[in-house]
Amino acid sequence: MNLDQYLPVLLFILVGVGVGILPMVLGRLLGPVRPDSEKNSPYECGFEAFEDARMKFDVRYYLVAILFILFDLEIAFLFPWAVSLKEIGALGFWSVMVFLGILVVGFVYEWKKGALDWE
């Protein structure tokens, strides 16, 4: 096995890591260190923190995120199908129609269950 072919990949990885780490190291070594109470205090958008930063999130945020990922992933399956529609013929067309039908049924089910309501 010839490992000379992997040298550009290794070089690319090393340069990428160096570009990411080198500015942080240089900033830490060469930057001025003048801590004071204002710099060390927690803030939110320039204001003092109103409450604990570790507040609980509503479950609906996670539900909407999962639903977004689910229906966004559908598009990832539709792009290759649309590109190769002429080659796959009627069987490919109808199989994707069944796939989309299942997704529509799932979407209607979520809508009827109230997963998309914010009240």
Provide the descriptors you would attach to this structure in a database record.
119 residues, mainly alpha, Methane Monooxygenase Hydroxylase, Chain G, domain 1, two-stranded antiparallel ribbon
Give your account of this protein's structure.
One of its GO terms (molecular function) is NADH:ubiquinone reductase (non-electrogenic) activity. NDH-1 is composed of 14 different subunits. Subunits NuoA, H, J, K, L, M, N constitute the membrane sector of the complex. This is NADH-quinone oxidoreductase subunit A. It catalyses: a quinone + NADH + 5 H(+)(in) = a quinol + NAD(+) + 4 H(+)(out). Pfam families: Oxidored_q4. The protein has 119 residues and is mainly α. It has one domain: NADH:ubiquinone/plastoquinone oxidoreductase, chain 3 (Methane Monooxygenase Hydroxylase, Chain G, domain 1), CATH 1.20.58. It is 69% helix and 3% strand. The protein has 4 helices and 2 strands; from the N terminus they run ααββαα. The chain has helices at residues 7-30, 37-40, 59-83, 85-113; strands at residues 43-44, 47-48. A two-stranded antiparallel sheet has the order 1-2. A hairpin with a 2-residue loop joins strand 1 (43-44) and strand 2. The longest helix has 29 residues, at 85-113. It is flat. The mean pLDDT is 84.
